[in-house]
Amino acid sequence: MTLSLDLLRSFLAVYRTGSITAAAETLGLSQPAVTAQVKALEAALDRPLFDRLPRGVAPTAAADELARRVGGALDTLGEVIGGELPAGRTVLLGGPAELCSEVLVPRLGPLLAEGIRLRLVFGLTDDLLGRLAAGRLDLVVSTIRPRLRGVRAEPLYDEEFVLVAAPGHEDGPLIAYAEDLPIIRRYWRTLFGTRPSMSAALVVPDLRGVRNAVRAGLGVSVLPSYLCREDLAAGRLVAVREPELAPINTGYLAIRSGARADPAVARAFDFLLTSLRDVT
């Protein structure tokens, strides 16, 4: 049986995004066109590929098998063919809410001016990388080095961590991003060679909220320098310690193997690598 490449590309886009609407945006096609192509492929194969849900679609076992068989080949073919940036192409970008909102969003003008549409998705790194590997995101700004099959990454930035407090509140209780103190643990391990023994008095699951709590004099915390640099310069916050070498964390820009075949994804990848190099 010979199947049209257009049908397979549309199928793979729906499979990877989990949505007819998102696939249509990714492909630069209308939603009815993608729906028709999926139905035509289902008719040609004589089996359903997706279960329709109230929001999006869920792949059947037949879809899982087809994606496994054709996904790599289509990615490789696209990489060989290449092409111009399609008008209105949507790139799905995942990353941490704080870094994306504070640093990335203000820098996206050149991509938008080129006609690339962007949809940002915030969440925990492991979840975002899983969605990338499954094809439901195009790129992920990752706070860890990805170790998933089919995903590669380039070092993107080094963020420095600073132990901060409001002036006069350097002995206050601990304020954290999460109960397990992920950023604070790294700081303590680097500077003191041990895990912190204290627990947080306040947990705020957004580093901007942590910063605001520290700024209000509620306690001390460890923040990436890009979130507290202006407050330190203005005297609203002070560094409780100033080590000779500040603890750092390396961030990565992750992409699925073969995804650079899409000109818009390749352009966004190259742009982000350049524009976020100065984050500290």
Structural features, described:
This protein is α/β, with parallel strands linked by helices and 280 residues long. The chain folds into three domains: 5-81, Orthogonal Bundle (Arc Repressor Mutant, subunit A); 90-156 and 250-275, D-Maltodextrin-Binding Protein, domain 2, CATH 3.40.190.10; 159-247, 3-Layer(aba) Sandwich (D-Maltodextrin-Binding Protein, domain 2). It is built from eleven helices and eleven strands. It has helices spanning 5-17, 20-27, 31-45, 61-81, 97-104, 109-113, 125-133, 182-192, 207-215, 225-234, 263-275, and strands spanning 50-52, 57-59, 90-95, 117-122, 139-142, 151-165, 175-176, 202-203, 221-224, 238-239, 248-256. Strands 3, 4, 5, 6, 9, 10 and 11 form a seven-stranded mixed sheet that branches. The protein has a two-stranded antiparallel sheet with strand order 1-2. Strands 7-8 form a two-stranded parallel ribbon. A hairpin with a 4-residue loop joins strand 1 and strand 2. The N and C termini lie far apart (54 Å). The model is unreliable at 83-87 (pLDDT under 50).
Show the helix and strand layout.
Elements: H1 5-17, H2 20-27, H3 31-45, E1 50-52, E2 57-59, H4 61-81, E3 90-95, H5 97-104, H6 109-113, E4 117-122, H7 125-133, E5 139-142, E6 151-165, E7 175-176, H8 182-192, E8 202-203, H9 207-215, E9 221-224, H10 225-234, E10 238-239, E11 248-256, H11 263-275
Parallel strand pairs: 3-4, 3-5, 7-8
Antiparallel strand pairs: 1-2, 5-11, 6-9, 6-10, 6-11
Helix pairs in contact: 1-2, 1-3, 1-4, 2-3
